[in-house]
Amino acid sequence: MQLASYDEYFQRILQNSAEAQTAVNLLTTNETYFFREEAHFALLEELITSKVLPASLVVWSAACASGEEPYSIALLLASLLGSDAGWKVDASDVNTDVLDLARQGIYPLSRAARIPAPLLKRYCLKGIGKDDGYFRIEAQLRQRVNFFYWNLLQARESKAAYDVIYLRNVLIYFDDKAKVKVINHLRRQLKPGGFLMVGHAESLQGRVAGMEALRPGCYRFI
Ligand SMILES: C[S@@+](CC[C@H](N)C(=O)[O-])C[C@H]1O[C@@H](n2cnc3c(N)ncnc32)[C@H](O)[C@@H]1O
Question: Domains along the chain?
């Protein structure tokens, strides 16, 4: 459909939720990769091996893009705790196209470079034939990650469900007021003593009360 102006397009977005979702899918920046900002994964391992976090921990990757972040978490938890332990990974995003890709769990082999070799060998399947050049996260591990649509600017009704929330490389897209709103929403989703990981270039300092800086990019709610 030919539209004469941005204003007409804006009106169309306001009236048509499918068009609005298409705009969101086109406008969001979804760059991500496996084991990005490794310090957060080293810290997660430390918190598990020192038993600060239980084997039944629940983690939320709250801006998961095409799934590399939640699958990195699941790979680590499976290797440390076993695939059958009670741990859970939730993963959400506002972009429905990347959520579809994430659910499939298929990636070009070139994206596997940062996955530790033993985890790649144990939990990832190399494509053959028409799937040559790709790998897939194995089905059992894929099923451990629950992908769903969520806009971080909305508050979730459930409360205090998570031991750890990854909120990385997304706060940069919000203004100060929206950042405080999102962090306050997420704080209510953390269990007491739970951990919030943000990107290393992102700081919460001075934005939210009741929060202790533990390491660069990691806060504990007290
Ligand atoms: C740069 S990616 C970061 C992915 C991953 N967390 C990482 O650090 O590699 C940012 C993601 O945030 C998502 N995003 C942006 N605004 C959002 C919102 N309001 N609610 C939920 N997700 C959002 C985008 O769709 C995108 O997939």
Answer: 1-30 (no CATH), 32-105+140-221 (3.40.50.150)
**For ligand 1, atom 27, which residue shows the shortest CA distance?**
65
Q: Which protein residue has the closest C-alpha to ligand 1 atom 2?
A: 30
For 107-129, how does the pLDDT look when each residue is reduced to its tens digit (9 = 90+)?
Answer: 999 999 999 999 999 999 999 99
Residue 179: pLDDT band (50, 70, 90) is: very high
Q: How far is the CA of 129 from the centre of ligand 1 (A)?
A: 33
**Which residues, at least 6 apart from 112, have a Cβ–Cβ distance to it below 8 Å?**
34, 120, 124, 135
For residue 167, the CA-to-ligand 1 centroid distance in Å is 8
- Which residues sit opposite 147 in a β-bridge? 91
Determine the Cα–Cα distance for residues 137 and 139; give it in Å rounded to an integer.
6
Confidence (pTM) = 0.96
